[in-house]
């Protein structure tokens, strides 16, 4: 492998177009115009004639004949097929005119020279054919080697590109090495898809943009004709990324290629190479997108971890003193032989207030957790009865004075939800129902399946929600009515709303003649099957 | 309720919480040992052999889980955890590692003492186990695998019976979903939580007088189930 390296290094430095033109250095006459090449070939023949003329009498004519064949051969190598053919005829003419008696006339004294002419012409023509074909092959091989080297250098440059701009710069250099102009068009907003805009300073005409859009949308190559003065960009290559698992083939953008010349032929000849280049560019862009996405997701999870740890330590630091407060006050109320009734009462009040504060704190922390970022649900398939029973038990003492009517209508399927969070919703709704209804009035909880949802309604016999606030009560810090006597922070329903929304359910409030109901839904899915016991 | 003078080890780094817990325990007639860290707690537990350990999960030097794991290497003493409400996963992990029950901060003295009594009673009952258990109007004869409601036999399937027996054997103790699935359904079913939930529901339909507001087969949301007589 090491032996190949020096081959690649120079190509790096040679990327500049002016230096790349040197590839055919040994065949420099080929870069001349057609007329000039014919002139070179003719001059070669004339030179042979002038050099041999003084030797005409010393040297056998057959050897001079050989020199002319050599001139044709040289013309074939240097100037190509056409000039070589011309040189073959010209040589025969010169040979005849200057070296075959009678001199300075095309007349031939000895008819056997006609054979010499014929052989000379034939050899000249055949060698010129062979040599020219060889030279063409060599040029083609050198050109293809140059293309390969450029493509290699290009992929190496793409490999170290850190963003789309650098990848584009490498693409521009690659395309410029062939004398063309490259413009990348990418969607102006990621995922917006439809509007393409050129990268960098480049500008395109409306016509060119519309070609680019069709190439992008149909994911196929579009080749247009040059329109003098209107458009020099004629090739539109969609930057397509092959389908991957769970993803169809997508176009990331379009690589438009323009040629400064009127003649589109050189560009068409290199189309497959340019397609290969566009393909590499597309893959690099895709890779850069993925790297960027991974970086953003890592950033998000770091943020999420920080948030969680801040919330956790906040929760710990605030809860610890409250735990002491509740415990110590409670201990005081229950200490026998305290004697003073008033002290026990005060201690009871301190305990209750500390508990209320804890309740508010929990709501605040819960809201902070639900509002920032994505809520991570711990969903499981389970009967909803469980959570209703546990909610009622959690609120046990508060509900003791109220008749609670639980109605579960029909045989309910298992539902997939986060039990802890839904318990929170049911508890909050029950607490609200308690808070905003007269003491001793009943509370009704109904569960039924409606269409593709499980619907839970909690109803009290209170005054109901203010009719203009039926929607806004679910917003943070909004309460049913400002002057209501019951205490609260206006977070309970907002928390319910956030939790239900995270479960893709809905929550709404409703007033009826004798009270208010809050409903929420949980989408029913296809529950996992249960294999029943074979033996009863 | 407690017989003699039980010793309770309180492992909690917050001084004021430790104080009221110990005061309440003293009033209940227990002797107390106090530790502020996992390491001192473990050496006290080894030296004094307490009847109950009350453990705060958030200790400064090491995690409470570490304490439970080490203690369970040599002792089956009941462990009551003190933890914050939001950390269901911490509770589950502590219970899975062998803790017996948990209390959510903040908690009142009555709640604390109720849990302590239940755990100490279980400790003492272990020595005088009886095959017949009664709760509500249900009677379960574990020796004959017979379940009766007010004298009439009730039919339970094999799994229902096994679930009930497991819960009864751990009277008052919280069993996590994982523990119950492992015990009743066996290994390989740990991921099939919905079975457990459906069977608990069926047991409630058969045993509880009001299945939606159960009195005995209680749900510890996000954690597991508890039988409470």
Structure, described:
The complex is a heterodimer of chains A (536) and B (229). Chain A has 536 residues and is of the alpha+beta class. In chain A, 53% of the residues lie in helices and 13% in strands. Chain A folds into 4 domains: 2-150, no CATH class; 159-294, GAF domain (Beta-Lactamase, 2-Layer Sandwich), CATH 3.30.450; 298-371; 380-523, Heat Shock Protein 90, CATH 3.30.565. Chain A has a 5-stranded antiparallel beta sheet, sandwiched between helices. In chain A, strands 7-9-10-12-11 form a 5-stranded mixed beta sheet. A two-stranded antiparallel sheet of chain A has the order 6-8. Chain A is rod-shaped. In chain A, 31% of the residues are buried. By secondary structure, chain B is of the alpha/beta class. Chain B has 2 domains: 7-127, Response regulator (Rossmann fold, 3-Layer(aba) Sandwich); 130-227, Winged helix-like DNA-binding domain superfamily/Winged helix DNA-binding domain (Arc Repressor Mutant, subunit A). Helix content of chain B is 42%, strand content 22%. In chain B, helix 6 (158-169) packs across helix 7. The longest helix of chain B is centred in the middle third of the chain and has 17 residues, at 109-125. The two termini of chain B are 15 Å apart. The chains are: A alpha+beta (536), B alpha/beta (229). Chains A and B meet through helix 10, helix 11, strand 6, helix 12 and strand 7 of A and helix 1, helix 5, helix 8 and strand 11 of B.
